[in-house]
Amino acid sequence: MKISKEARRFARELFTLSLTNGRLDAGKSKSLTDQLVAEKPRSYAQILREYARLARLELERRHATIDSATSLDGAETEKLRQDIASRFGADVTIEFRTRPELLGGLRIQVGSDVWDGTVSNRLHLLSQQL
Amino acid sequence: MSSILEDLESKIQGIQSASTTKTNVGLVREIGDGVARIEGLSGAMLNEMLEFPGGLYGIALNLEETEVGAIILGDYTKVREGDEVKTTGRLLEVPVGKGLLGRVVDALGQPIDGKGPIQSDTNYPVEKIAPGIIRRKSVSQPVQTGIMAIDAMIPVGRGQRELIIGDRATGKTTIAVDTMINQANANKAAEAAGTPGYRPLYSIYVAVGQKNANIARVVKTLEEHDALKYTIIVSASASDSATNQYIAPFAGASMGEWFMDNGMDALIVYDDLSKHAVAYRQVSLLLKRPSGREAYPGDVFYLHSRLLERSARVGEQYGNGSVTALPIIETQAGDVSAYIPTNVISITDGQIYLETDLFYQGIRPAVSVGLSVSRVGSAAQIKAMKQVAGKIKGDLAQFRELAAFAQFGSDLDARTKATLDRGQRIVELFKQPQYSPMAVELQAAVLFAMQQGYVDAIPVDRVKEFQTRLQEFLTTRKAELLAKILAKGAFDKELEAETKTALDEFKNLFK
Q: Which candidate among A54, B81, B237, B357 keeps its CA 20 to 30 Å from the CA of B119?
């Protein structure tokens, strides 16, 4: 669905309003979107869609994904949790995933930044150099 | 103290051996027509290379709030929505160096002539800032195009940007190819003679949006004249993606800059920049950049100005090299006041304007004297040419003005008649078949004969025959005289007398 310029602008304003100290506020977000759906301004479906996209991007920015070849034990995950909290703040959500194709090592993604120390990445870099 | 250093060294070693790399990633949201929109990539930089899965690369051209717009180099149909894209922290680079001479490469410097890999260990970024005013020097050495009409009236210097402009099929590419062949001839002659202080001129031919058949023909022509070994061909044909067509001239400029940085001279032909502008318009519109006049984006002037600014002559302490540019623009029905032609005319240091009418009158090369200029080249012309060709442009311009009166025949005063007679003979002299450039010393000798009135007695329809036989006579029997003209570079009393003797001798032979 094409989202018009006006809808985009409106969604952006709505999104700015739902921030508290630069972070997305769940309560504000809910009340604002509830009101939007109730009032049904022109092209509110488009606005909601764009708002959802902005919210998704914001949440992805505050979300960490940790990929490893084998599942990590409790001590390791706890250490990683602490590291990430101290580096990026306590509000970062963390997700652990097991991906055997990585062969070994860790791949940590926070927002769009990636720290890749996996064997598969090293092999990939090596193959590029050759 | 040493223990502290050792400790620090070991710590640094420890950091380096950790093989974790930090990159920035994004996901492809939209892909089509060679343009991708990528979500994420918050750390991407402008013009940075992006890595797509499958070894494909792209260039980040639009950095927006939540998205990055990138153009894809290569086959974009392999990219899928949801693919992960990585930043590389590198700019697009092409191989440069002498290993490229004699090769045909694509816009990324990869060989497409089936002659094996390129021997090069140096890469240059495709986009480079042009040399500044401190590094530059004014144009003072000539580029001999080998085309008498141009070398006599619109001389080009090393480091100059001279536009070749004209309608389709007026001989624009031919002038460029002739020039490249002439450089090869001069290089070969100087190599054979071991001329001290000779600066070879290497050519780069960038084909943008040309038919593959035309590019193949240029390659074949250069091969036939043994000029390919001094030439690099960068090909982004009409069947290549708009991205490659957009990149190709910049890649060619980088290859030329290597010669300049290493104290050598290079000549680049951009064939042609109208199609380059069209390719850039396509890319810009697909990236949803706002369009302006004729739907070209706002920075289409900057596109060509930053490309042509990279042609320069640099001073001794900066390598003393040069890059000369011969951009080509195709006009529609002779309209030089269209958008792209006026842009490029204002950027360049002069233009060679080719006219359809002249072409069909049989005046080839169809150089229009009135509209063609060279703003800096006269400083680079050798003295001998200046001595013999100084007044020719004026004479010819007067002739063109009076040509309309020629129809009235006998009712003309003596002076007008003399101007017309002279003009007709100059026009005949300047006719030159394609792919047969003339050495500068021969041009000077022929123009000397013109200046001294040796041609005035010849009927107009026999001028060409007179010229051909004179050239034959000079090259076969008076080679020493030609060598002397080239070595001295100017006509002094002694040389004038000697040339006159030779011309008198020929006059008696010519019946």
A: B237
SS (HEC) of B348-407? CCEEEEECHHHHHCCCCCCECCCCCEECCHHHCCCHHHHHHHCCHHHHHHHHHHHHHHHH
pLDDT at B298 over 80: yes
Phi, psi torsion values for B311, nearest 5 degrees = -85, 125
Give the SS3 label for residue B59.
strand
Q: Which of these, B282, B275, B163, lies nearest to B210 by C-alpha position?
A: B275
Tokens representing B432? 């030159």
Tell me if B39 and A113 make a contact (CB, 8 A cut-off). Answer: no
Which residue among A61, A114, A125 places its CB closest to the CB of B24?
A: A114
**CA-based Rg of chain B, rounded to a whole angstrom?**
27
Closest CA to B438 of B141, B182, B149: B182
Q: How far is CA B90 from the centre of its chain?
A: 28
Element (H, E) at B35: strand B35-40
Cβ neighbours of residue B90 closer than 8 Å, sequence gap 6 or more: B48, B49
**CA-to-CA dists, residue A15 to A42, A64, B63, B458, angstroms:** 17, 22, 21, 87
Q: For A42-73, write each residue's pLDDT tens digit.
A: 999 999 999 999 999 999 999 999 999 999 99
Comparing CB atoms, the residue among B18, B24, B66 nearest residue A113 is: B24
Question: B234: distance to nearest CA of chain A, Å?
Answer: 25
pLDDT band at B17 (very low <50, low <70, confident <90, very high): low
Other Cβ atoms closer than 10 A to B130: 17
Q: Considering only the beta carbons, identify the residue of A61, A109, A116 that sits closest to B21.
A: A116
Output the CA–CA distances (angstroms, integers) from residue A46 to A41, B218, B229, B435, in the order listed: 10, 55, 61, 64
Tens-digit pLDDT profile for residues B80-133: 999 999 999 999 999 999 999 999 999 999 999 999 999 999 999 999 999 999
- Residues of chain B contacting A116 with CB distance shorter than 8 Å: 20-21, 23
Of the candidates B74, B70, B64, which has an alpha carbon nearest to the alpha carbon of residue B31? B70
Q: Complex ipTM, two decimals? A: 0.89
DSSP state of B502: H
Q: 10 Å Cβ neighbour count for A83?
A: 12
Q: Which residue has the tokens 């980088």?
A: B254
Residue of A nearest to B40 (CA): A112
Cα B174 from Cα B229, distance rounded (Å) = 19
**DSSP H or E segment with residue B58:** strand B56-63
pLDDT score, position B19: 65
Sole residue written with tokens 């360049």:
B348
CA quadruple B123, B126, B127, B128: dihedral, nearest 10: 40
Count Cβ atoms below 10 Å from residue B243 Cβ, excluding itself: 26
Helices and strands (H and E) in chain B: how many: 16, 18
Q: Is the pLDDT of residue B410 over 80?
A: no
Model pLDDT for residues A111-130, shown as the tens digit of each residue: 999 999 899 988 888 888 87
**pTM for the whole thing?**
0.92
DSSP B130: P
CB pairs under 8 A between A and B: 40
